[in-house]
Amino acid sequence: MDKQSIDRINALAAIAKKRALTPEEADERHALRQKYLEAFRASFRNQLDHTVIQYEDGTKEKLKRKDV
């Protein structure tokens, strides 16, 4: 997610505190939030995929995904 998109999300949040957003602004905010959440989830998933648990005996094991 680029800095411009995050700045725009923050600008729309500030506008929403002062007045009601227009339908176009609300749609833009929703789309930007969805894009932000997708980027956050991908980053977090990547971090978990590279996490290793080290046990007291020195053995290491990668985290396993649970099917929900």
Can you walk through the features of this model?
The protein has helices spanning 3-18, 23-49, and strands at residues 52-54, 60-62. By secondary structure, the protein is mostly helical. The protein has a single domain (3-62), classed as Helix hairpin bin (Helix Hairpins). Strands 1-2 form a two-stranded antiparallel ribbon. Strand 1 (52-54) and strand 2 form a beta hairpin. The radius of gyration is 19 Å and the shape is elongated. The mean pLDDT is 94.
Return the CATH topology: Helix Hairpins
Give the total of domains: 1
CATH superfamily: Helix hairpin bin
| Strand/helix succession | HHEE
**Class inferred from helices and paired strands:** mainly alpha
CATH class reads Mainly Alpha
- Stretches where pLDDT is under 50 for at least 5 consecutive residues are none
CA radius of gyration? 19 Å
- Count of runs of 4 or more consecutive helical residues: 2
Strand content: 5-15%
Classify the helix fraction into a percent range: 55-70%
What oligomeric state do the depicted chains represent? Answer: single chain
